[in-house]
Amino acid sequence: MSNSTKRPTHISEEEWALRIKLAHCYHLIDFFGWTETIFNHISARLPHIEGEYLVNPFGLNYTEITPENLIKVDVNGHKLDDSPYDGNPAGFALHGAIHAARQDIHCVIHTHTNEVSAIAMKKQGFSHDSFYGAQLYGRVGYHEFEGITLFDDEKSRMLESLGQKHILVLRNHGIAVGEFDIERTFFLLWTVQRAAEIQVTSGALGGEDVLLEQSIRKKCADLTQMLIKDSGFADKFYSAMVRKMESEKGPCW
């Protein structure tokens, strides 16, 4: 991974490593075509600091994100550094609520690609009958659309919808996924996106789907969780995707 930007003296090595990883994540989302121009957000909780996380400066393209220009905010969206940039208030309610309530989630990614947004509009939600959809079995919560996510009073309802799951479908809107670190969160998002793409394509074909038994769905989901928990699988996947991106587009910064 590239790291040509020099670490500012006021930022610890641990935080700088997180900033590099998070900035790469923004570039990866753009590389895969999952951006929504300057909108949406990826946040990462700061290590060993309660209630503080990094997020993108509002107004920059994802390809303009660097480790240094990421902004630091608290769970209420208040900026904690002297950055000339501000954040997007529409992201603070969602990201702040999850970071404040779920100690097992250190990274949250919010997207609304065509495929994910299409599924968010369907009453059925995600099917668990494809290879990727089965891996999401038991991990998806659904939250009813209340408009643009700006207001504090919606936080408790979003958290109730999420429960102890790691995928939150925002009905009529998009999706948020969260995991223990950036690598696992990105892999989860990739799995969700692939499940959405296959479900949309399958629906367009018409005809009857082959349905999986619940026991098979659960087995797939459990095995995936076991695979990414301690094996370094997500780390290898993330590093490979960064290498692929930089081999095609050059260093990110």
From TrEMBL:
Its EC number is 4.1.-.-. One of its GO terms (biological process) is monosaccharide metabolic process. The keyword Transmembrane helix does not apply. Residues 20-200 form the Class II aldolase/adducin N-terminal domain. GO terms for molecular function: actin filament binding; lyase activity. Keywords: Lyase. One of its GO terms (cellular component) is cytoskeleton. It comes from the Bacteria. Belongs to the aldolase class II family. This is Decarboxylase NovR.
